[in-house]
Amino acid sequence: MTTTNRNLLPQSSELKVILLVLAFIIVAGTLWYTHSIVRDLEANQKRIASLFAKSFEYIGSDKTQSGDYSFVLEEIIHNIDFPMILSDAANEPLAPYATNIRNVALDSSLSTEVQRAYLKELIAEMDGNNPRIKVEAGEGVVLSYVHYGESKLITRLRLLPYVELAVVALFILIGYISFSYIKRSEQSSIWVGMARETAHQLGTPISSMMGWVELLRHQTGTADATVVETLHDMDNDLQRLQKIASRFSRIGSKPDLKEENLVETIEKVIQYFQRRIPQTGKRVQISLEYKAPVTAQINGELFEWVIENLIKNALDAIETGTGKITIILSERPAHVYIDVTDTGKGIDMPYRKEVFRPGFSTKKRGWGLGLSLSQRIIESYHSGKLILRDSRPGAGTTFRIKLRRH
Length: 406
Known about the structure:
Heat Shock Protein 90
C-alpha cells in the first residue's frame, strides 16, 4: 500500500547503530582497563599481606636476636589500608580482638561473644574473596592465619566501570533523544516550508483561471449546453485546486478544531472518489459502516485530506482492478476509531515499520509523503493517532485513526 524509494544517504537507523557500536567499544575498553588496574592493586595488596605474615614469622622465630620491631609496627602495619584479621590455626579470631585487626570497625560495647561471631563472619567473607595466608613457625607448623579483604580504593575501582557504564548510557539516551528531536524539527521545517510554498505557487494561477472561467461564462451565456457543462466542470476542478491550496497553507499553523459530524465529512470524501474511480478503469466499491452518527473535534479540511490519502493508498494497493474499501466508524466513551480497510496486496513484514517514514514508497511513482503527512495531521493537529493496525500480504491492509471525543 505504501513503499520505498531508498535514499543513497545512510539511514538514520544505521547511524544510530554505528553510534551504539562505538559506545559499546568505548565501554568495553574502559572495563578492560579498569579491571587491569584492579588486578594490579589486588596483587600489590596480597604482597603487603604476605609481607605482614612473613614479619610475624620472623618475629616468632628463634632467629630473632633483637626486640626492636619498630620496622614491622611502623613501616608495614602503618601502611596497611585494607581490612585484615589475625586468627589462630583453627581460624578463630585472636584475642584481644582490637589489637589483631586492621581497618575493621568493631563495636567495643558489644560482648566478646558477639564480637567473635562478627569477626568469624568477616573471616569467612574475606576467605571467599582472597586466599588466607599462613604464619608458620617452622616446616608445616601453622601458628596463625592472616585474612584480608579489599581496600576502599579497590572497592571504588570495582564500582567505577558500572558508574561509567551508567554515565555512557545516560549520554547515549540524551544523544538519542536530542538527535530524534532535531530530526523531527528539521522534518517539521521542511513540511511547513514545502506546504506554504506550494500554496503560494498555486494561489496566483488558480485566481487567474477562475477569472477566465467567469469571463467565458459571461461571453457564452447559456446557449450551448455542452459549453455550460464544460465550464461547470472546470469551475469544480478549480474549486478543488483552491481547496488543496488552502490545505497546504494551514500546515504549520494551529488549525481551528470544531465539533463536526464524522459521517458527513467522510461521506463527502467517498462521493468525490466514487465519481472518479470509473475514470481509472477499476471497479472498487467504497462503503462506510457505522451504528450511529459520531462527532469529534476536527478541522474539516485537514481531516478530509487524511481520509483522501488513506483511500488513495487503498486504491493503489488494489492492483487487480476489482476490490473493496471499507471505512468502519466506531466509538468508545473517550475515543472515536476510524478503520480504513482495503482488499489490496497488503504490506510485507519488513516494510511495516517504514510506512510512515517520509520518502518511503513501494510504488514506482510517487513521493512517499501521503501517509507521513496524514500521520502528522492527526497527531500534531488533532492530538490523535494514525497507526497501521493490520496487514497481510495478499489479504489487504487496515489503517486506524484514533481521535479523542472531547
